[in-house]
Every structure is written in C-alpha cells, then in structure tokens.
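Subgroup meeting minutes
Present: P.N., E.W., G.H.
Scribe: E.W.

1. P.N. recapped why we're keeping a running log of single-chain structure predictions: easier to compare across weeks, and new members can see raw inputs and outputs side by side.
2. G.H. added today's entry (452 aa).
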Amino acid sequence: MVGLDGSTPAPFHLGQAWTMDSARRITAMLAGSQGGKTGLGPWWLWQEIQRSGAGDYFAVTASYDLFKLKMLPALLQVFVDILGVGRYWGGDRILELRVNKSVPFQARHSTDAMWGRIILRSADSPGGMESGTAKAAWLDEAGQDRFTLMAYRAIQRRLSLNVGRILITTTLYNLGWVKSEIIDRAADSGATTLQELTGGAEIERTDSPAADICLVQFDSIVNPAFPLDEYHRQKATMPDDEFAMFYRGRVAKLRTLIYDCFDRVTHIVKAFTPPQDWPRVVGIDPIGARVAALGLAYDADKNQLHVFREYSREFGETTEGHVLNIRELFKNDRVIAWVGGGPSERQARVDWNNAGIPVIEPPITDVWSQIGRVYSLMKTYALVVHETCPFLISELGSYQRKRDQQGNLTDDIKDKEIYHLSDCLRYACAWITEPGGTGELIYAPVQIGPAY
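Output recorded in log:
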C-alpha cells in the first residue's frame, strides 16, 4: 500500500495482511486509532473487484463529514492516482471503474452504463442504500453511533443476490451492533490466535467458519508508523476503558454507558412466544425520522418482564400505515396498554388514537426518572431481552451520556434523537412500574437506583 508520504510504497503490516488474507464473508478489522484502517479499505475493494469483475460495489462510512475527509481521499488516491482505473462523478458520489487503465471509460454522463462503479454513501443517509445490487462493500468507521444496525442490514440486503463480502474497518466507540453482531458471534464459535510483536504490540485473529466471520483486532502500535511514546502517553493518561477501545481495538465497558449493568450473558435470552396469559404492554415512539414500538410481556410467576418483539421503520410510511403494521404485529397479543411519546407529543397521540391505537402518555415524563425505572429492572434481573430484538440490543450497547469539554459526564444523552427503541423501553417501563391511576397494574413498584 501507499506510505504516509503518499508516494513511497509500504508493505502491509501484520494486522492489514491478516485482514487482506481473510476468506470469510464478513471480515472486521477493529484497531486502535491510526492503525491503518481507512488506508486499507480501497486496496481490499480493489482485491474484490479483481475477484468479482464488472458491477457495483459499496463504500460506506458513518457520516458525510467522514466521507469527505477520510474515505473519499483514500479512494481517489488508490483508484485514480495510483491504479488509474477510477473517475469520480461528484454529483452522484460514484467512482466509475474501468477494467484497466489502457481501456477508455465508458460513460459520458454519471447515469450512463459503466463497466463498474463504487457507490459512495454515508450511513446517516440510509435511503441511498435501499436500491441496487452490489458485489462487495467496505464499511469504514462502522462502530460510530450513527452507523446503525439498520444501515448495516440495508447493505446486507444489497449484497444478498451476489453473496457479497463485507469489510468493516473501525475503531470501537461503543458496544452496539458491531459487538453484538460481529464480535460476539465470532467469539461464540471461533478460534483465536494471539501474536505479540516488537514493543509489546498485540494482534488477535478470531476466525469463525460457522459464523463466516474473521475478526482482526490490534493495537495502534501494530502500525509501525505509530509513535510508541505517544501510545504509552495515552495509556498513562486515559481511562482504561477508553484506552482499550480507542487504542487497542478491544471491548471494554465504557463508563459513559447509561445501562452499564446490561450484560449479554444474563439479560439476553432465547426467543419464545410468551404464553397468552402474560399481559403485554407496548412502548411506542410515535413520531420522528424513525417510528418504533417494543412489546413487553410480564411473567407473574417469576416477576420478570420479557422484551419479546420490536418494530422499527424509517421511510415511506404514514401514521395509519404504522398503526396497521403494529396492529398486525401484535394481533394475537393481549395488550393492556400502548404507552408512548413525550409531554410535547400530545397531537401525535391523538393522531395514533384516531388511526386505531390508543397511545397514552407515560405517567412520569422526566427522561432520567424513566431511565431509572429501566435501570432498576435490569439491575435486579427483572427485565430480559429476547435475542430476536437485535435493534434494541444494539441501542443498549451504545446509549451513552455526553461529555463536556473537560471530559466530564453530563446528564445529556449523546445523539438522543437516534435511540427510538430505547425511548420505547423507558416509556413502557415507566407505565409498568407506576402504581395506580394508569390502568391495570401488572408489576409492583421497584426501588429506583441512585443517581438516575
């Protein structure tokens, strides 16, 4: 690959070489900051293009800013400047490909037929990934909060016809879907190889034929260009959890997580249909870019709530359409309450009632008081989540407090507007744990934990 000066060829370091050598359908390269992730992505794509030939390919990053500042320059350097097989159509964010640089480009306009295309998108605009068929996809910084599981699933759908491969390159920023869908699945059935390099750098490869995932994790200093002194300075001054994730590519329980007591082993259970005599409450987030609903069933014998069903839709649906979808989803359930919305969303509740679902306001409206109810239920193992609710599980692993400019935790929720299922959960739990005045009480009040 290209060296740091932009011209001098440099060999792949071991973390990059293991990634390039992976034959799995999904390869995830989770590395520390400046480990050489974005620089590898275009070369992996070129390898896939040589293997699969003419057609469409995806290159997707977390946000438009990252697209402009990181992904696009890396792709242009490799495909245009070095290989000479790419031409960029900026208006449509398409990199036209030709089979080699001795053959002319086919297109006269960005909409013309091309030998091949790399379609460049950002995950914070997922609508751009809901059409077309691709042969492979590179996902950069997929661990960021705004690169959602919904965006990942949309990309998988576009690759299904060709059984296309995926490369994920990212620093770990949270414990969301990259952990639940990639790290955990690889660890459950894979074998791990650990190698220590000069200077104490470590690299791990977890290969899982059963999950068809290869997971490569390594420290920033596996990249020989990363200064060893800087690595140790960060280690000495940063909190252990942040250093493990940001400079080692390893999972740690972040202090910023709101539901830091949520544990995959104890809180996620195999899915089953709750018995009909278990009452249901449905939490609903009724408006916004994504409408969501979450079904909770109450096991009176064990005094335990089961989150057993989720609904999440982003595009092309009216209130009436959402109501029909959710009614159909819960048509065989004895729902005793539909709860949702904040104090300012009265009109949304009226609209939902007129459409056929009588959504009521949660009995407590303070966000942190609602979160406290959920936290207490989790802490006492009175709440579990069925494994068939992957979008909620992903949200619980990335639902975090913001930090101020000094790095201190605040009472603001980071990217609050994207956590729709988490909102549904706190709405439903606020109703379930509130004694009297809201309907049939199915759960005794719990003691709310401190500082929530």
